[in-house]
Amino acid sequence: MNMWHPEQVSKQQIAFVRKLYLAHVIDDGKHNLLSLQKLTGMPRRTLQDALAACSDIGIEVAFIQDGARNNSGYYHIQTWGPINSAWVGTHLSQIQNLLNIPAA
User: Fold this and answer.
1) What is the pLDDT of residues 38-56, one digit of tens each?
2) What is the arithmetic mean of pLDDT over 47-73?
3) Please, are residues 53 and 59 in contact by the beta-carbon 8 Å criterion?
4) Which CATH class, in words, describes the domain spanning 11-96?
5) Which of 39, 40, 38 is nearest to 18 (CA)?
6) Residue 67: how many other CB atoms lie within 10 Å
7) Number of CB atoms found within 10 A of residue 28's CB
8) What pLDDT does 82 receive?
9) Sign (positive/negative) of CA torsion 33, 41, 57, 92?
10) pLDDT exceeds 80 at position 93
């Protein structure tokens, strides 16, 4: 059963679901912008905007510096806030379908 019908989903709902998906991916491994781009197919600017706006829904994302260069490192979820991360994992295929991201 699909809880979302793409023709009935607003831009705000897509943005919300995108943040959930990115938080799930980041929580599942060490990712930087390049690896997130490759994994999701999302443009760099979309990723940057979504990551910066995660705090709007209570998800705190930090960039962990891991090397001498400024962009050497990975993102880390400090807290999911009010979001249930298990729910996101359970509905991952529906989220990927809505965002047109192929299942891994």
Assistant:
1) 999 999 999 999 999 999 9
2) 89
3) no
4) mainly alpha
5) 40
6) 8
7) 13
8) 95
9) negative
10) yes
Q: What is the pTM of this model?
A: 0.88
Residues β-bridged to residue 13: none
What's the Rg (C-alpha) of the chain?
A: 14
**72 neighbors 65 (Cβ within 8 angstroms):** yes
| CA angle in degrees (0–180, nearest 5) for 55-87-61 | 25
Angle between helices 33-40 and 44-53 (to 10 degrees): 110
Whether the pLDDT of residue 1 is over 50: the answer is: no
Domain limits, the chain: 11-96
Beta bridge partners of 31: 75
96 to 2, 25, 65, 70, 78: CA distances (angstroms): 11, 11, 29, 31, 23
